Amino acid sequence: MAVRRVVPNLRSAASDDNRAFYGLLGFEEVMNHGWIMTLASPSAPGAQVSFMAADLTAPVTPDLSVEVDDVDAAYAAVLDSGAEIVHPLRDEEWGVRRFFVRDPDGHVVNVLGHR
């Protein structure tokens, strides 16, 4: 299994303010679903940050998103480890397959793959 990208998810209801502020640092909006907005660097597209008011389908807002090339393998590995699944593996309407897991320090990690 390979990691494709890692994106911090910052809780915020001020996406317009954050778009303007992080724009000063060279970030541009690459995704906006209303409840989550992702900004990326045009010169280094893997450099991203997301702002989320609340997750649309999960009971908690994740602290971090990790995109992997095989989300089903990641889910199986996490289940075998005994880690706490916070949000079960599912296909979301916006084109990702994902689950949430709690890391050893209590952070919620959104593990996803694009369909």
From TrEMBL:
It comes from Nocardia rhizosphaerae. Gene3D superfamilies: 2,3-Dihydroxybiphenyl 1,2-Dioxygenase, domain 1. This is VOC family protein. It comes from the Bacteria. InterPro entries: Glyas_Bleomycin-R_OHBP_Dase (IPR029068), Glyas_Fos-R_dOase_dom (IPR004360), VOC_core (IPR037523). Residues 1-114 form the VOC domain.
